Each structure stands twice: as structure tokens, then as C-alpha cells.
Amino acid sequence: VLAERAFTRALGGTCHSPVAAHARIDGDMIDFACEVLSEDGSEHLADRARFAVGDLGIPVALARRMIAEAPASIRRLFEPGT
Fold it and tell me: Which residue in 22, 13, 33 sits closest to 77, CA to CA?
């Protein structure tokens, strides 16, 4: 849950934002899948990462990179935070 929240917070997202994040613990690692979408869902970016439990820097970096690469229809929906 902490990784999912870190990802969403780094996007500047809320519970109403078109974003998905799913973290699954596998031993001492987290398998993380995420997606950001345009309002109508016609455009989206998805990614995955695997990192150590407790390393919240990875989902934050992932969010920042995804927003930087996102089309304007997605970028305008988010106000990246820390």
C-alpha cells in the first residue's frame, strides 16, 4: 500500500484521478504495476517495476518518468508532487 500511495502522491493524483497502481509482495521484493490514463481512457501509459520492500524511491521515480513521457491529455490531469 505504501508503494501504491507513493506512486499516486508523486503524480499529484487523488482518489478521483485516472490512475492504477498494484503492488504485490514476493518475498523481500515488490512486483509493481501501474498505469495513467486520459479522462476518456483513449490514451494510457503502463509500466512495471520490481524493487525491494520499503524502497519507495522507485515508485516515485516511475511516476515522474511516466508523467514526463505522457501525452498532454494525461499530463494536464496531474500536478506532480514529491
Answer: 13
d(CA 67, CA 26): 27
- Does the pTM surpass 0.85? The reply is yes
Residue 31 contacts by C-beta under 8 Å, 6 or more apart in sequence? 23, 24, 48, 50
Q: What are phi and psi of 2, to 5 degrees?
A: -65, -40
Written as one string, the DSSP assignment of 48-66 is EEEEETT-THHHHHHHHHH
In tens, the pLDDT along 33-64 reads 999 999 999 999 999 999 999 999 999 999 99
Helix (H, G, I), strand (E, B) or coil at 5: helix
Q: Give Cβ neighbours of residue 45 (< 8 Å, ≥ 6 apart).
A: 35, 36, 66, 69, 70, 74
